[in-house]
Amino acid sequence: MNRCPITYQACDGRYSAKGLQLLSRSLKGLKELPFSARELRLEAAARSDKMSIQGVQPKLSARLNIKKQQFDLVDRDGRYILKPQVAEYLEVPENEDLTMRFAHLAGIEVPLHGLLYGRGQELTYFIRRFDRNGRKAKIHVEDFAQLAELSRDTKYRSSMEKVAGLIDKYCTFPAVEKLKLFRLTLFCFLVGNEDMHLKNFSVIYKDDVIALSPAYDLLNTTIVLPRPEEELALPLNGKKNGLKQQDFVDYFGRDRLQLTNRIIDKVLLELKQLRKSWEALLATSFLSAEMKRKYLSVLDDRFERLFEQE
Hints:
Elements: E1 2-3, E2 10-11, H1 17-23, H2 37-47, E3 60-65, E4 70-73, E5 80-83, H3 92-105, E6 113-117, E7 123-128, E8 132-133, E9 137-138, E10 141-143, H4 144-147, H5 160-170, H6 174-191, E11 202-206, E12 209-212, H7 245-256, H8 261-272, H9 275-284, H10 289-306
Antiparallel strand pairs: 1-2, 3-4, 3-5, 5-7, 6-7, 8-9, 10-11, 11-12
Helix pairs in contact: 3-9, 5-6, 6-10, 9-10
């Protein structure tokens, strides 16, 4: 019995019927990507100047070809982003897919995503673009580096307090979005995501409302990097390391985001109650046994620190 890399459910073939249905109700099967991880990285390098989304990880634009039951690489108008295995770091696609699933369980909006089999059974991460509507229509999205008038090279020159200030300045309903920011900040700490720089936050413009976009680029970087030095990419309360409950709750939640005690307590309780669900999902994930052990170690440390006073 296999496990579907889109739903994690047991299945007879490579993908479950439910997994295929998530991609398209008309999809009856899905062929493997006709590339190895190395070939996908070479394709990503060759097409990099045509990609509207950049970053450290190699990325490819793709379109689902329902008739041929396959993903086709394209230079323009792709509805999906593909991220292959990274040469320098282990199991990044499996890590990102799992972490995004954790985010969904934590009440954080995420796009459709999953894993795809390629040549040699290597797994590639996919995510549906939330800035596209149909084949060609685009939805206006701006990342926080753009809002702050900073560049890719200066995306770390900010703070979580300034992120909150940009929400106040640009979002239609800032109180709603600051609650989302609080939840996302706690989540990133718990899962060891230390790379939430300004380009990993975005606002989306829909129906005359400016709001935080669905979350993306969430992964446990602590177990990816050989010697992680920070716990947050952007300082909070002047710190990137040694963060405690009082930094997140008293300082950031109450003082800076102006959230009520009732709302803060509700978010904390919801996150605390996720522990067993996350552990069960981790056990069924596509990470290796060693990476599962490392991920669990991060969760042990971060849950203890965030909820140490309870």
